[in-house]
Design goal:
β6 and β7 (171-173) form a beta hairpin. The longest helix is centred in the middle third of the chain and has 23 residues, at 59-81. The chain has seven helices and seven strands, in the order αααββαβααβαβββ. By secondary structure, it is α/β, with parallel strands linked by helices. α1 packs across α2, α1 (3-15) packs across α4 and α2 (18-25) packs across α3. Mean pLDDT is 82; it is low at 165-174.
Length: 174
């Protein structure tokens, strides 16, 4: 299936008519009609039907538009993937309390962005209990917070910095 034909269908959806799409894409109207017919043949169903003098989406055509849009978005992402293939790409969600973000992590985040400039870094500033809950729910990739609970075996933990220790009754809290 030709992506440019799907782009034509997407443009028709955006501008509302074959004529406007042809003008916007610098195609002859017959080219737009041909491309739509090719897509319909390959998909095995009609995207448009003629109502009076206008071509309008069929119910199946309307239902297919989110899939067509997603396919074109994915194709664009795949084409840009090669631009970043030699480095880290993606999205990293980090949850952290405001105090640690402000006083402890500025240098770490700066070095991270230098080493992985193509990674979308999302920082969620939350309290430690909310961070813990989001970590257990899988809503964050990394949780940096004060030790507030015992952790299940499925959670990998480590100490980044020991801030203080309080001892009493034979128990140490860090």
């Amino acid at each position: 299936m030709e992506l440019k034909y799907l782009e034509t269908v997407q443009t028709i959806n955006e501008v509302g008519s074959f004529q406007k799409a042809a003008a916007l894409l610098n195609y002859a109207p017959s080219t737009v009609t041909f491309q739509v017919q090719q897509v319909e043949t390959q998909l095995g169903f009609k995207l448009f039907t003629k109502v009076g003098r206008k071509m309008v989406f069929t119910s199946t055509g309307k239902a297919a538009m989110p899939l067509i849009n997603q396919l074109l978005t994915d194709a664009t992402a795949l084409n840009h993937f090669a631009d970043h293939a030699d480095g880290l790409v993606g999205r990293l969600v980090v949850a952290v309390p405001e105090t640690l973000l402000t006083y402890e992590l500025q240098g770490v985040l700066q070095r991270f962005k230098q080493q992985a400039p193509n990674v979308e870094l999302v920082i969620r500033v939350l309290n430690c209990y909310d961070i813990y809950a989001q970590m257990l729910d899988g809503k964050v990739d990394i949780a940096v917070h004060y030790d507030v609970r015992l952790y299940p075996a499925t959670i990998h933990t480590g100490v980044l910095k020991k801030i203080f220790t309080v001892t009493g009754g034979g128990t140490a809290i860090s």
